[in-house]
Design a protein that fits this description.
The chain is an alpha/beta fold. It has a single domain, classed as Ribonuclease Z/Hydroxyacylglutathione hydrolase-like (Metallo-beta-lactamase, Chain A, 4-Layer Sandwich), CATH 3.60.15.10. 26% of the residues lie in helices and 28% in strands. The strands form 2 sheets. The protein has a 7-stranded mixed sheet with strand order 6-5-4-3-2-1-14. It is globular and about 55 Å long.
């Protein structure tokens, strides 16, 4: 399983960091986890084919995590010489379904060569051979984390969230946690974790690796890493756009 960071940033525009988006690539499947503005272009920059995407997994309907869903649907319907026949799966909570029904399909007609199937992301679902689990998190109503498992490997995407005990059990033994580490402890705001809290989560969950992501353009670097490493002895990295991690 490969994780490709499309965007390690946030809603705030940044030259270095695109809005949140990740690809999860297995031998059989290509998943897009969140798709903020610019994610679709980042897929192309990462050398992947957006037409191969099987499923889009949305953590929550904030624009920096969902806005390129419109662009993806549009591109799948209008790419020259391309006729999509396989279903597109979209997973999320009820608010994501509302966005998709009320916004995406108000702008675009429904595709006529393929179906868009909504998966209500409550607890778990299976897109063979990949198991996906979800867990509610402390951010905005309808925010969830995802845990994706295939062939004995697992990755957790916390989505935007504050630190919460429930996430520890959910992330237990994960090979990788991709975590919202928006601000340093001194700038901490409610609804997002600090690198230290991400470290604590990874440590208590017994995870192998931690990737600090969702980083606002107010600073990262050594201090970010130090806060996380003080709480977690495993492997910690700061995400950068287009980086790839093999699990
Ligand atoms: Zn966000
Ligand atoms: Zn958010």
């Amino acid at each position: 399983m490969k994780i490709i960071v499309l965007g390690s940033g946030t809603c705030v525009p940044s030259i270095e960091r695109s809005s949140p988006g990740y690809l999860v690539e297995t031998d059989e499947r290509l998943f897009l986890v969140d798709c903020g503005s610019g994610s679709l272009r980042q897929v192309v920059k990462a050398g992947r084919d957006f037409r191969e995407i099987d499923a889009v997994l949305i953590t929550h309907p904030h624009p920096d995590h969902i806005s390129d869903l419109i662009s993806l649907l549009h591109a799948l319907m209008a790419a020259p010489g391309y006729r999509r026949e396989k279903d597109l799966l979209i997973a999320g909570t009820e608010r994501v379904r509302q966005f998709y029904e009320n916004c995406v399909f108000r702008l675009l007609r429904r595709p006529d060569t393929f179906s868009v199937t909504f998966i209500s992301a409550e607890e778990k679902f299976y897109i063979p051979p990949v198991h996906v689990f979800t867990h509610p998190v402390y951010h905005s109503p309808g925010s969830i984390a995802y845990r994706i498992e295939r062939g004995g490997k697992s990755v957790v995407f916390t989505g935007d969230t504050d630190y919460g005990a429930g996430l520890i059990g959910f992330s237990e033994g994960a090979d990788l946690i991709v975590a919202d580490s928006s601000y340093l402890q001194r700038d901490k705001i409610k609804g997002h974790m600090t690198p230290g809290e991400c470290g604590r989560l990874a440590g208590k969950a017994g995870a192998k690796r931690l990737l600090l992501s969702h980083i606002y353009p107010v600073g990262d670097g050594d201090e970010f890493l130090r806060e996380a490493k003080d709480a977690f002895i495993g492997d910690v990295e700061i995400a950068s756009d287009l980086m790839e991690l093999e699990l």
